[in-house]
Structures
1.
Amino acid sequence: MRLSIYQGLFLICKFLPTSAEQCTSETFRINPDKRDVKLQGFTYRTFEKISPRACFQKCIRRKRCHSYNYNRASLRCELNLNSICVSDGNFHNDIGYIYVEMDHYRGDPLFDPCVGNQCAEGEVCESLQNRKVVCLKDDCKIPKEELKNVAPGKTSGQSSVYGNAIAAMALDGLLSTHQHTNEEKFPYWWVDLGNMHNIMRIEIINALKPGYGNRLHNLDISVGPCLDDLSLFAHFKGPGISEQHLVFERRQYTDGRYVKLTIKGHTALHVSMVHVFAYPIC
């Protein structure tokens, strides 16, 4: 029996899903927004050895997925957050990648299986046999390897500098050094981890100089994809004491690229060391 054009295209998409960056059937067609380019710094989930169509489905089923990078050679799928701080500078040339945004397809019943049942930020919509969809918790398996401190050597900054106690001194691994801001309202310190990480634990070693540890109080520790898009990871009421080793940990990871410490009051922010323990993106 002779196959129709649509049936033939469907079979091509089904049995040769990795043959091209664009695949067409009766109801599926994507056109990359950028070719040989990827968005860096905002990937929060990765999937290996999957087809272009499967990568599209992984993204559109997740409300928090704004776009994805897909590599045709390695079959690697990278889901990106919808961050307010994405700019042209975050796109980098990388041969073999395509970049696709979901805004063109979300809400269109030809492409979006979750129309009429949009899931929450931390959920993924899964299709049932009766074509209905349910919202399930979108979680990835915690890696078996040990947590790593991903902060050393990364770019950092602070609201002001007292003397020569710059922000990087909280990441140099030396207890004999420290970062130090001026006395001011809402002093802060931050570190850019360079890419999204699954952050599990943040440790702070307070200033070692006797009599200054109580400056650390009413401290907000925030995590997020950029400095303008942070959420509270932990709060330390304090006051702290000199040389105090503070540990803030969650059972469930929080994905983020930036970690920021802010004292809500008028004082100086003065800590000896900051560790950010995290897993690679999953």
2.
Amino acid sequence: MDLTEQINQLEADLQELGPLLEKAERTRVQELLRQEQKKLEKEIAAKRQQKEQQARREADSTTKAAYTVKITNYGWDQSDKYVKMYITLKGVHNIPSENVDVNFTERSFSLLVKDLEGKNHQMTMTNLLGPIDPKDSSKKIKTDMVLVMCKKQTVRKWDCLTQVEKQSKEKDKPAVDDNADPSEGLMTMLKKIYSEGDDEMKRTINKAWSESQEKKLKGGEDGSMMDF
């Protein structure tokens, strides 16, 4: 029974005591009823004070926890069926499990950890590489860690975690010209190595180039040095 219910019961007892006191005729009975009346009034006052203190503590806790920080410390792994997110949060196993809430959509999830060391901790992951099944996705609370398990809709390995990462990799990938001369690409690479290399590297490249030219000419003219 919570404090509100206790106060209601005591007030009901006090209210019922009033008519009894009015009907009492003997002095001793009246005195006993007045003592019980004062006892109930004191108990009600104490319970109300206790309720007010509890409300203040809850308000203070809510105020402290209102400060929200973004979660940046995490890692991820996968199997054919699940993407697993490992979110490190010291002491998370010590708070009530209902304080750890994860909401899933087909392409995202959001994690909110409430009132951990006086703060809220939040993480949102959007634009997942593939669709997930929200109803079969879940969370597990471990020592100093929250494990978020996203169930893939399609059984396969992901190349990366999000669409943004995929687009970034494709952007950074050098363009391939199917009609380009492979030797031109090799020459460009060698020139870059030559220009950035030290004297020993340059001598090595020149020697390799000369030997290659000698073999190609089959004993003819000496191979010339690369024009870098």
